[in-house]
Amino acid sequence: MMLNSLEVVEKKAIEYLSNLIKINTSNPPGDELSALLYLEKIAKQAGLKTELFKTDLNRGNLIISLKQNYTSPTVLLSHVDVVPADSSEWDVPPFEGIVKDKYIWGRGTIDTKQLTIIHLMVMIALKKDKSPLDLIMVVTSDEEAGSEFGLLALLKKKGSLFIDSLVFNEGGGFPLIINETPYYLAEMGQKGVARVKFTFESQFSENPYLPNHEPLTDLIKFHQRFSEPLVNESLPDLVTYMFQTIATNEDLHFDRENPALFIEKLPSELHRLLHAMTKTTFAFTRWRGGRARKEFQNGFEILLDSRTLPYIDRTSFENIVTEKLKGLNVKYEILSFSQGYETSLDRDLLSIFENLLQEDVSIARIVPFLSIGSSDGRHLLPYRSKVYGYCPTHLDLPFHEAIKMVHGRNEKISIQSFVFGMKQMYKIMKAIEKGDVA
Predict the structure, then answer these.
(1) Which residues contact 116 (CB under 8 A, 6 or more apart)?
(2) Distance between CA 190 and CA 342 in Å, rounded?
(3) Nearest 10 degrees: CA dihedral of 108, 44, 54, 67?
(4) Which of 28, 139, 189, 269 is deepest in the core (most CB within 10 A)?
C-alpha cells in the first residue's frame, strides 16, 4: 500500500496540532469558531471543500469534503472543544502545544484535537491521491457539554448525511495489554446516561428531643438498594464477543451467565472497566440536606448518575427506579436521559481493521468495545449509523494510561502514536476506496 502522499503531509501534522491546542476552546464557554476557521483555512489551501455552519456567536460546525457533491459519505467525526485545565496542576502549560521529549503536550491531545488533525491529514493525503472516495470529515463544537451547539444543531440541517452511514468517531483505538498481547478497542457502542434527582421529604421537627429520622432511615435503605446490581441483566452482544475473543486467545473459560469469574482472571487494572461494561451502574454525585438546610425541612436531596446498558430505554429505566423506591417516602425527577446504543457486529469489517493493524503490530487483535463514557456517537442512534470509535495508537499508549489523561492532567500523545494513527486511518480509507469495506 502506497503511503507516499501521507508521508508528505505528516511533516505539517505536528505543527497543525500544536497550533490547534494553542486555540483555547475550553468548554465552557467553548468559543470554538477560531479553531474551526483555522481548520477551514488549511483545508481550503489543500483544495478541499468546506462548509461552515455557525450555531452561536463564536460556535459552530465544519464539514470538509473531498469533493463538492457528496451523497452517502463515509464520515470522520471529531470535536474541537475541550474540558477546562488548571495550568497550576500541569507540568507544562496546557494550552501552548509544547513539543518535547518526542511528545505533543496539551489539552486535546487525546480528546480529541489529535483526532481532528489525523482526519484532516488523511483528507489531504487522499486529495493528493485524487481519491474518488465519497468522504467527509465533520468537526463539531460543544461535545463536552451536551452538543446543543454542536452535532445536535448540525443534525437538524444535515441529518440525512448520517442515515445508514459508516462513521469513525472517538472513543477507541487504545490497546488493552493482556499477557503481552495488545487487544485494540473498537468502540461500537456506549452505555446510556441518566441523571436523576431524589427528594427525601419530611416535616421539620421543632422539638430537638423528638427529631424526625424517617428521611435518614429511607436514605440508608435507598443507598443499599442502589448499591446492589440489577438482577437478570443480559450481557450486551458486543461485550460477549469481546470476552469470547479474549478468552479463546488466552485459553480461558468464559461463561456469559457469570462474566465476573472471567474478568477476575485478567489484569487487575482492567477489572473496574470490564465489570462496568457488564451491568447498569449507579453513582451518587451530590447530597444536600439535614437540619442545617432548613429549605429541605429536615429532608435530603440526592443527585444520582446512572450508566445503563444499551437496551434500557427511558421507560425501562423509570420502571427500575420505581421498583427500587418501593416503600420509601422518596420522590424523583429524571433530569436527563440518553439511551445507549450498540452498532451491529460486523466481523468482516473488524477483520479488515485487524489485518491492516497487523501489518504494523503483528500480534495485535481487534475487539469491539462498549464504552462506559459518552460522545457524539450516541446522537446518531436514530440515523442507523454504523459508528466505530476507532483510531489506533501505538503500544506506548495503552488504554489504562490514556484514560488517566482524558479530562485529567498532563494530557499528551507521543509523536509515534500520532503518526501511527494517521497511517492506520489512511490505510482504512484506502480499503474503503477499493471496495474492501462494504
Answers:
(1) 20, 39, 78, 79, 80, 137, 139
(2) 7
(3) -100
(4) 139
Range with the lowest mean pLDDT among 174-178, 208-212, 338-342, 389-393? 208-212
Output the DSSP codes for 212-244. Answer: --HHHHHHHHHHHHHHSPPSSPPPPHHHHHHHH
Rg for the chain, CA atoms, rounded = 23
What cell does 378 get?
450516541
User: How big is the chain, counted in residues?
Assistant: 438
Query: How, if at all, do strands 341-342 and 330-338 pair?
Result: unpaired
> Can you tell me the mean pLDDT for 378-401?
95
Please state the separation of Cα 22 from the chain's center in Å.
Answer: 23
3-state helix, strand, coil in the chain (%, to 5): 40, 25, 40
Q: Rounded to two decimals, what is the model's pTM?
A: 0.92
The two beta strands, 181-190 and 365-371, are parallel
Edge-first strand order for the sheet with 412-414 is 99-100, 103-105, 412-414
Non-local (6+) Cβ contacts of 136 within 8 A are 63, 64, 65, 66, 70, 73, 74, 75, 76, 161
Please tell me the predicted confidence (pLDDT) of residue 219.
85
Q: What angle do helix axes 113-128 and 4-22 make, rounded to 10 degrees?
A: 150
Q: What is the mean pLDDT of residues 282-295?
A: 74
Q: How confident is the model at residue 206 (pLDDT cuts 50, 70, 90)?
A: low
> What would the pLDDT profile of 112-155 be if each residue is shown by its tens digit?
999 999 999 999 999 999 999 999 999 999 999 999 999 999 99
